[in-house]
Amino acid sequence: MNPQPQQxxxxxxxxxxxxxxxVAGWIVGGAMGLLVIVGVVALLIAMMxxxxxEVAGNPPAPRGDAVRGKTLYIQSCISCHGPxxxxxxxxxxxxxxxxxxxxxxxxELADFIKRGRTPEDPESTMQLLMPxxxxxxxxxxxxxxxxxxxxxxxxxxxxxxx
Length: 162
What we know:
There is one protein chain. The relative contact order is 0.14. 51% of the residues lie in helices and 0% in strands. The protein starts with 16 loop residues before the first helix and ends in an 8-residue tail after the last helix. It folds into 2 domains: 15-58; 66-154, Cytochrome Bc1 Complex, Chain D, domain 2 (Orthogonal Bundle), CATH 1.10.760. The radius of gyration is 31 Å and the shape is rod-shaped. The chain is built from 6 helices and no strands. By secondary structure, the chain is an all-alpha fold.
């Protein structure tokens, strides 16, 4: 006759090692699954937040450094566009109130600075030459984005595309 453990048997008796490893496996597997779910949810929330700020008219901050951009603006743009960006007579247009500037994305504006504009350009309101890079052949892609970031500070409160 084999004695069977009775309910309420002593606490010293424990489940078999196989049962313990099975429970541990479930716990570890469940924790890993939970971490994956939390990561996916966090990613979805971040994506929704980014999309909602762009839709709400709050585009992401410019990629350039506005402080550095101001120095580059002074070196490359001020002689035509003036110290405030309001333009200089027969030199360069007002870029603070410019629909052209406000409607361009940061990258489009950086590309525009890179290539410049001829007087024959149909979008030119003053029919003046804007040399590539404002005449500063040393400007890099990062420099142009810094200048754009500074230009965006001049257009504070105006709707711009980023």
